[in-house]
Structure formats: C-alpha cells, structure tokens
Amino acid sequence: MLQSTLRLCALFFVIFVSHSGYANQGEAIYQQCVACHGVNAEGNTAMKSPALAGQSEAYLLRQLTHFKTGLRGKHPADIYGSQMTALVANLDDNALKEVSAYLSSLPSSVSEEQRSGDERKGYAYYQGKCGACHGGQAQGNPAFKAPRLAGLSSDYIERQMQYFREGIRGTDKTDKPGRQMAAMSRTVSDEQLHDILLFISQQD
User: Which is a Gene Ontology cellular component entry for this protein (predicted)?
Assistant: First the structure.
C-alpha cells in the first residue's frame, strides 16, 4: 500500500514539474505575442486579437497546431489568421505546448464590454444553442473540445461565427469540432447572435 502511494505521489510530482516547466518556458516564448495579445494575454480589440489568458490548454494547442499545419488561417479571407500562420511557422511542437501551458495557467480574462440586447432572450438562446458544449456560463468544456467564451470580445466571437458560416473556418474533414461549429453557426440568426453575445459578455 505504501509503495503504491509513493509511486502515485512520484507520478503526480513528475506531471506537476513537467507542466510547471512548460509554463515557465512558455512565458519566454509568449513575449513575441505580447504586441498583439497583450502583456497579460488579455487580448486587444483594436488589433483584432482575442484574449488567451485562462483558455483551455488543449484548445490553445489544437488551434496553434492548426495554424502551423494550415488547417486554419490559409483561407484568403482570413487576414488575421494568415498573420498567425506566419508567426507560428518557426515554433516547434514543444514550443507550442509550452506557450499553451503558460497561457492556460494565467487568470482568465474578464469582459468589460457594455452591450445592448435582450438579456432574457440571450440567456435562452445561449443555453439552447451553445451551453451544452461551451458550458452554462460560457466557461468552456474540454471534454467536448469546446473553448471558454467568457472573456472573449464580442467582435472576435462574431467574426469567428461569420468564418464558420461562410466556410472560411471549420471545413477540413479532420477538424471535427470545427465542422460541428460550422453546422451550428448556420442555425443562429444575426438577431439571436446579438443577444447571445450580450449573455457571454456578462459572464466572468
């Protein structure tokens, strides 16, 4: 029993140290991202750059890998995505893991947007169309590979919804979560999205 406990503790220690090491190295790598995404990875609406702090590590790694391999950011209409493909081109797999671990370890960003809309409808639309995957409070759900939406700017979410609707994102057959979003995006009207964004902007 004692040996089993010691082995478990040792395994936990190795995992903890490994993850901590990734995060520490990731902070150094992230410095080349600060100009667009902010010192604290809080995002920059003027630069069209989303908040990254506190986002799911697995989601961040998957999207960075998609930028690197061309699954995302290669469409001519995705101007901001093409900038990301260039930026990650020289980062190896370990670097992507390290920066993803670092960003996920940061305190989550909180939206300070003031939006108009119908709160009651926004709640109902969100829970009916988004909550099952992205969580009841837009906190994300790694089990469904669904990112945290709380803290993201409405401008960024709206642009990504447009990309999914128009086939700019989420068309590759190997990107199952992306294809699911593309299909779902076409069930959301502009009026519904307006109220959904109000709900998301109110979540911590």
Answer: periplasmic space
pLDDT at 21: 55
Q: Annotated binding site: which residue ranges?
A: 33, 36-37, 84, 130, 133-134, 181
Domain coordinates in residue numbering, the chain = 1-107, 115-204
Decide if pLDDT at 162 tops 50: yes
Architecture per CATH, 115-204 = Orthogonal Bundle (1.10)
Give the model's confidence band at 24: pLDDT under 50 very low, under 70 low, under 90 confident, else very high. Answer: confident
Nearest Cα to Cα of residue 99 among 29, 37, 31, 40: 29
Binding residues for heme c: 33, 36-37, 84, 130, 133-134, 181
Q: Say yes or no: do domains 1-107 and 115-204 share a fold.
A: yes
Question: pTM for this structure?
Answer: 0.86
